[in-house]
Amino acid sequence: MSVEQGSAAAAVEQYLVARRAAKLSPHTVAAYRRDLRGVLECVARLRGVAVGQVALADLDATALRGAFAEYAAERAAASVVRAWSTWNGFFDFWVCEQVVAGNPMPAVPRPRVRPSSPKPLRGEDTPERLLEALARGARKARDPWPERDLAVLALALLTGMRSAEMLALRVDSVSGRRGERRVCVVGKGGGERVLPIEAPLEALLEEYLRTRRERFGAVGGGDPLLVDNRGQGLRRGGLQYLVKQCYRHAGVHDRVARGTLVHALRHTFATRLAEDGASVSEIMHLLGHASVASSQAYIEVTARAQREAASANRTYGVVRRLVADAQEAEGARGT
Predict the structure, then answer these.
(1) 3-class DSSP state for residue 110?
(2) Across residues 96-104, what is the average pLDDT?
(3) pLDDT tens digits, residue range 73-93?
(4) By the 8 A CB rule, do 234 and 171 touch?
(5) pTM score, two decimals?
(6) Ordered domains of the chain (ranges, CATH)
């Protein structure tokens, strides 16, 4: 049986196997599978059949429009756009393989999503206040480990790494001579970039590793750099919980945009780069962006913030009043 005549579910798995050559991260592959399977399940429900009974040939524009309408009902616009993009890539692949005649996705509507603006920690002194509170042991826990907490938060604030990038770090990801340390980061799509680590952050990491050896013994170069209180590699949920608790105990939880958590630290890093005059290309490299547009957003947001700060100058209040008085006097003369 040909792919076209076979089940769409099998075509999905074959497509994901073919994508392995792109060296996608396990997280990305899981997201692709979730998007493809989610819409495919909607097609099956609308047809009243099991998922395995839906053939690739059944996936025409009409079927996909109905499926995406159902899929979008309980999901955010950004999630629907991502699923649409995944299906678009799926059909492009099978068109290139000459299995299907054309890509039906241009006939399937997708929501418009406004580009999201960066959401750094609010308040000029918030990063410093956060780190100082952690250094004092502000985070109360059954088994407190302030050196680890401080190292995790400082690493995020001073390198701008994504959550997945931080969790993928190994002890030997940090290399170089003392005073010239650097960290090798594996980003989206398996791309690598090297970020500098200055002496203060180096000192925090060394102190954290010292206390880790006291707790759990020798540390190997291939071991996870960041670990939980049992000495196991820190996971996504554990990192989010740790950061959330740090915000709360440091008294800055009200300065964090909803739904950002770890990403707020990355946004803070990038925003401060832009405020201090970093170029788009520098921001792009340090953050591991594939698109200049993503980095440009920080420059634009910073420019708006500067304008808002300037407009808040108290002298503007006097000038506004003088202008209003002059306009009122002009109006009186005109009557």
Answers:
(1) coil
(2) 93
(3) 988 888 999 999 999 999 999
(4) no
(5) 0.64
(6) 8-107 (1.10.150.130), 126-311 (1.10.443.10)
